[in-house]
Amino acid sequence: MATETELKLAIAAHDVPALLAHPLLAAQPSQQQRLVSTYFDTPKRALRARGIAVRERRAGRQTLLAVKTAGTVAGGLAVRGEWEAPATAGRFDFASLVDEPALAAELQTLAGKLAPVFTTDFTRRRWLVRHHEALIEVALDRGQIHAMTRDGPRSLPLLELELELKQGPPEALFRLARQLARGVHLRPLAASKVDRGDGLARGKRAKPVKADAIALGPDTHPVDAFRAVALACLAQLLANEGGVLHSDDIEYLHQARVALRRLRAALHVFAPALPPRFVARWGPAWRALAQSLGTARDQDVFRTGLLPALIPLLGPRDAARLQAWARVQGQAATAAARRSLASRETSDHLLAFTRDLLRLKAGKPGASTEPLRPWALKRLRQRHRRLLNGIRSADLFDAVERHQVRIEAKKLRYALDFLGSLWPPEALHELTEALVQAQELLGQMNDRVSAQHLLATAPQAGAERLQMVLGAQLVQSAAHLPLVLKAVMQASTPWK
């Protein structure tokens, strides 16, 4: 079995001429070939469920049969097993192709049930580039994905750049990608051809993607644990990126914001185990994008969540003026968030951060060699202590001090999300439930404070009256807060 390591990148059609003119490619000879590939699966998608792809590709006069395993995909980087060899069209001889007997036998039992799912038809232009110590194949694919659906034939355009590692370390792919991106806008691409083709065939509509559960082994090194968590956060961000840029469903933006918030929380949680220069660079680097998405989210919560209940308190003319203002403000904030997410700076951050993640080493001189579970216990105890001290000292009627308690509660909650798999679920259940209740109430109060700030900039169409109503609601919520926070303070934990 060969191991395929490749980085998939999105590129816009108008950037292709600049890519072709890039000195790294213009100086190299290239080959061009039309590739027509049919992907197969059973009617119940047995291969898809296992993350396996079976592909029959026609390249010139040759037919190639390929099997690819699930592997790992994060930050646009895919590492997976691959078998490919010349074959007779329509014949699935997995026993000769796959050198893992159990998998070969499993595939052979399914061979009679395999049917075409979708086809890719594209022209590939490829270069072989020596970049520093690495040898990398650069492939530009331009064409279509075709599938027969219940509603008839459907197609999607296909345009992407693939960097496949032939020799050298995986981080070399990101170095070359950043070099190419100096003259061309390149972005990590989360969805593979199989993902897009299968979705097209099923007529499946894309949906906002929530964070996956994190499962870590007790003997994992904290640096390796951080890498797994950070890559999961990047995967969630990239999975929602297209929806933020092209869909009116605001939930995509909410989930992209959650991904960034989790990523920044992971930098805080794992900071003692990470190189200080890494934390100093990437902590602030993600802040501006997070703030931009946060502003758009605040505008949406105000316009769709809080304003409808307040509008009846105003006269028709004032209500219409305020709603129109909120709509314009929300559209401007969403447009700004999209610009930030689609910017070259964000693209470079995604490439450079993933490269730096791959460079992190658990066994560097002076680094901790402590297994994850005892390290996590101490870290969770520290975060828990900070939250309890904050609750005891805060004036809960003061918005700034209350917000600080909310931040500490959120950091502890994310720390539990990242590290909680190291204990039985019941060991953390009481604290997790108490934190969920506290975050919900503190979040609602924070939304009202944000709404007050937004109303302070609104046209004077009864805005002052609405600010007073929000203030009264905050006082009512603050009266319930001590009881909710008491449950957090009294919740049992593995470190008490």
Strand tally:
10
Q: Tell me about the largest β-sheet.
A: 8 strands, antiparallel, barrel
- The SSE string, one letter per element, is EHHEHEEEEHHEEEHEHHHHHHHHHHH
- Rg over CA atoms, rounded to whole Å, is 26 Å
* Number of helical elements: 17
Q: In terms of structural class, how would the helical and strand content be classed?
A: alpha+beta
The fraction of residues assigned to DSSP E strands is 15-25%
**Helical content (DSSP H or I, runs of 4+):** 40-55%
Strand order of the largest sheet: 1-6-4-3-2-7-8-9
Uncertain spans, ≥5 residues at pLDDT below 50? none
Q: What's the average pLDDT?
A: 92
Spatial shape: globular
Termini separation: 49 Å
Structural write-up:
With 496 residues, the chain is of the alpha+beta class. The protein is built from 17 helices and 10 strands. The protein has an 8-stranded antiparallel barrel with strand order 1-6-4-3-2-7-8-9. A hairpin with a 2-residue loop joins strand 5 and strand 6. Helix 11 (287-310) runs antiparallel to helix 12, helix 14 packs antiparallel against helix 15 and helix 15 runs antiparallel to helix 16. 34% of the residues are buried.
What's a concise summary of this model?
55% of the residues lie in helices and 20% in strands. With 496 residues, the chain is an alpha+beta fold.
